[in-house]
Design goal:
- The chain has a domain at 27-57.
- It has helices at residues 11-20, 27-56.
- It has 2 helices and no strands.
């Protein structure tokens, strides 16, 4: 299986996106938000893989 190339969102890009939605955050807050979202994504993927494994067995 071929590894997927991923491009991380920079804190500055996150700040820009959030600003467009009317939310002003500091660079440190943006970093923490991105860390949280990465953890959340990992949990979601792990849960999906667990569910798939249970369906197969």
């Amino acid at each position: 299986m071929e590894a997927l190339e991923t491009e991380k969102v920079s804190p500055h890009k996150a700040m820009e996106v959030l600003r467009c939605e009317g939310l002003e955050v500091t660079e440190n807050q943006a970093k923490k938000i991105l860390e949280f979202l990465e953890k959340l994504a990992n949990i979601a993927v792990s849960q999906c893989l667990k569910d798939l494994k249970e369906d197969v067995l």
